[in-house]
Design goal:
alpha+beta, ten-stranded antiparallel β-sheet, about 210 residues, about 25% helix, single chain, 5 helices, about 30% strand
Length: about 210
């Protein structure tokens, strides 16, 4: 039986106020999550929509953030890649249970530069680089052994050479128009601080929401 999180035990931290810089606030919260979250503080729920308008969500890893937005990487020929190609809009959310906090956001999506994608791909473990060439992400797979065979073929192809980034492996940046910081409080009287703007280059406006 599922049990709801007991926010009675949440540390009574001070709530950020409407004068906060959202980028600096996210950086502060993320640094704290890196210290307190046992695994993958960068695990991010990513929501896109199919051509039928039905939402689709999965966990990806947040690989960068700054004032421009939140960056993740994927195969552009995957299901989410094709959904993004149809509608360059997405939503994301991070939940840090150890801190009783959430951050969620949505907005238009842009491709990161080729240089930025190359630099991140070069930083990946070699087997992960090979896997990016071996996996036809989201396509039908007859059996596990086929994937292992294709992986071994890709490994043999590159040998000990540097592995280039596949042309279909891209980086995406969500440029939020809505950015919400949530803190769990006792009796579900949670804090919700919201930043909104009309376009990715506009000035943020801050407000609070009832929980």
């Amino acid at each position: 039986m599922l049990q709801s999180t007991n926010y009675e035990q949440t540390v009574d931290v001070a709530a950020p106020d409407e004068t906060s810089d959202p980028t600096a606030l996210f950086r502060e919260w993320y640094a704290e999550a890196e210290q307190s979250e046992p695994t993958d503080p960068n695990a991010m729920a990513l929501a896109t929509a199919g051509s039928n308008g039905i939402p689709d969500v999965r966990i990806v890893l947040l690989k960068g953030f700054d004032a421009r937005g939140f960056v993740f990487y994927t195969n552009s020929e995957s299901q989410k890649g094709m959904q993004l190609a149809r509608s360059m809009n997405a939503a994301g959310a991070l939940h840090w249970k150890s801190l009783g906090r959430q951050v969620r956001f949505h907005g238009p999506v842009e491709l990161v530069s080729e240089a930025e994608a190359d630099a991140y791909f070069d930083s990946r473990q070699r087997n992960s680089q090979i896997g990016a060439w071996a996996s036809q992400q989201s396509r039908p797979l007859d059996r596990r052994e086929t994937l292992q065979h294709v992986f071994e073929q890709a490994a043999a192809r590159f040998g000990m050479d540097n592995i280039p980034r596949p042309p279909h492996w891209r980086g995406y940046r969500i440029r939020p128009l809505y950015l919400e910081f949530w803190i769990g409080r006792p009796f579900r009287l949670h804090d919700r601080l919201v930043f909104t703007r009309s376009n990715p280059d506009a000035v943020w406006a801050a407000s609070r929401l009832y929980p």
